[in-house]
Design goal:
291 residues, Rossmann fold, six-stranded mixed sheet, four-stranded parallel sheet
Length: 291
């Protein structure tokens, strides 16, 4: 089987279940595991060079409003790779190349490849996607073992945090404007021993007003802008520190604002979501220990 993965989380899943050897093309954002970086990249960003969070948001909103894609797809290279299976998504026009563009490009291909769209909204959905890709690639047994291992880690973490003091946690998946975590993120906060505030479980992230955040005044804040590595996340955090409404929050004043890698963890619905919850649990536990 020849597989093209147009979703970084799908690339991680495919390699984790032993199907990496069948992957012949990925996106420009597929950076894990390291072997994925060596594969042909079929996409590129259509946005201008990255600026501030606010500038990126303006470009994204203008593109979406104007009906333009945020990504270029190399349809000629896709045709050359002749995939049997293309893995994509319809969940978010901002997160990856759109299903419509992929479907249009696939119609040019010989051999009628199968297109599979992954649409997870929860951690259980991610586990179901792992199982699905295992079945489609002939790695069903590997997928079952991976899901069993991840569920065991979830059960261990749930037991460890069952009696934890439930800090009210705000997750910011963007900083200017502030946007709360949706889909699987509130569930990860609960798994980590926190109580999510202003989240949107099972649905898209929500843009928040600083007045709304101030009214909630969360105990802790996790900052993990989508697509930002840890260095860029710290830059976004520095920008937040110039906003009086942010520095007035109790979480900031009491040093309970945490930065997380927004490329590796929270926004990427793959096997590392369990690690995300484990890291978040450690952060919340350390915050309690210091009080």
């Amino acid at each position: 089987m020849r597989i093209v993965s147009l979703l970084p989380s799908a690339t991680e899943i495919l390699f984790a279940i032993g199907a990496g050897e069948d992957v012949v093309g990925v996106t420009h954002e597929c950076d894990f595991p390291e072997a994925a970086r060596a594969l042909p990249a079929l996409t590129a960003s259509a946005l201008p060079p990255a600026g501030s969070s606010a500038e990126i948001d303006r470009h994204v909103r203008a593109s979406v409003h104007g009906g333009s894609s945020l990504y270029h797809l190399d349809a000629d290279r896709l045709e050359t790779l002749a995939p049997d299976l293309i893995v994509t998504q319809e969940l978010c026009a901002v997160c990856a190349v759109s299903y419509e563009i992929v479907d249009r490009a696939a119609k040019r291909l010989r051999g009628d490849p199968r297109i599979v769209s992954l649409e997870p909204s929860s951690l259980d959905d991610v586990f179901a996607n792992i199982t699905l890709l295992g079945d489609l690639t002939g790695r069903g047994a590997n997928a079952e073992r991976l899901v069993a291992d991840l569920r065991e880690r979830v059960a261990t973490l749930r037991a460890r945090t069952a009696d934890a003091r439930r800090s009210r946690v705000l997750v910011l998946e963007w900083t200017d404007p502030p946007m709360s975590g949706g889909h699987w993120t509130p569930g990860l906060v609960e798994l980590a021993g926190g109580a999510p505030v202003l989240g949107n479980p099972g649905a898209n992230s929500v843009t928040l007003a600083w007045e709304t955040i101030a009214a909630e005044d969360p105990d802790a804040i996790v900052v993990a802008p989508c697509g930002y590595d840890l260095e860029k996340t710290h830059e976004a955090l520095e920008a937040l520190e110039t906003i009086p409404a942010f520095t007035a929050l109790r979480a900031y004043r009491e040093d309970r604002v945490f930065a997380m890698d927004g490329t590796a963890y929270l926004p990427r619905p793959g096997p590392r979501l369990v690690e995300t919850a484990e890291i978040m649990a450690e952060l919340l536990a350390s915050a309690h220990a210091e009080r």
